[in-house]
Amino acid sequence: MFETSLPALPQALASAGGRVYHPDSYRDRHPGINSITSPCNRGAKLIDVFCFPKYWLKIHQVFGFKTIKNPIFALPFMETQVKLFSGIATEGLAEKIAKSYGTALGKLMHYRFSDGELQASYEESIRGHSVFIIQSTMPPADNLMELLLLIDAAKRASARHIVAVIPYFGYARQDRKDQPRVAIGAKLVADMLAVAGATRVMTMDLHADQIQGFFNVPVDHLYASTIFLPYIKQLNLPNLTMAAPDMGGSKRANAYAKHLNADMVICYKQRAKANVIESMTAIGEIEGRNIVLVDDLVDTGGTLCKAAGMMMDRGALSVRAVCTHPVLSGKAYENIENSKLSELIVTDTIPLKQESSKIKVLSVSDLFAKVINSVHNYESISSNFIV
Hints:
Number of helices: 11
Shape: globular
Low-confidence stretches: 1-78
Number of strands: 16
Order of helices and strands: HEHEHEHEEEHEHEEHEHEEEHEHEEH
């Protein structure tokens, strides 16, 4: 889309070079009308122009087009503006994304009734604009509910595009029926976002890649490897070995290992119940190695801490972990502080509840800001992926 203000449209076209034409979409809706294409000798660059009829004469004069009988005009040209808004839970990250993008967060009003019910409203016009709503959906469920309310409010306020930017997609671990009579929570959340009015979803490191298939709207799935890999490289660790804390994470660890030209280890664990590990062993060479565990999230930290202890007992030189989402529930902070982990590297998709000497936070704000800009300008985002 060629973007400029309406009064400056002819001059902008003249300086850029191109041709003015009517979109095929209009012809498709009206089979009896042919597309009108007017050649221009000022360059071969193709520019899509949506203009008001009153500007046709001026464009005609600037470019010297041949006379066209009864021209048919398509949709009015509109310049959409990006507006970023944040939910309460991820306001710190949203402010950093907005700063990196080069704008300020939009104005929102949050109100709670005496019984705890949440109401949110936009305090500025968003009619015809591209609205990006930034909110992670970790517990409590109010975070998800607030996001849904903001999406619905944007739809009813006539926003042109509504993008749900969900750095941490909650309920992603409920991606299948792994036992009888359970819900598929990830699919349910995807449906609620679509019904609320989201036209696009942007997220990072889903627990399972196939969750993208739960959506009927475009999903931009970003990877924290873009941030973690440069950090791991600058550590300059000899005998580097990437490790998966469980069988499900082997694909992710293998991708890191290939990129870093390192070996790989896979941990095998058996759980007595959720968040409780009964036994653990490892497949691969550990002795004399600097191990880096890779996972999409860290919850109680039980798996990482047990894996670190097991590997150090088997002769590893050091054990670190990189995890995108620091859920860190229960006794996670205590477990990490008392573990044999040298360092836990996480992102700021979820704000930390407390500081820890072993936890280092890398920000995803620049990455999200860059992708938001690319999405708004209809540009490819594949250059932002490493593995």
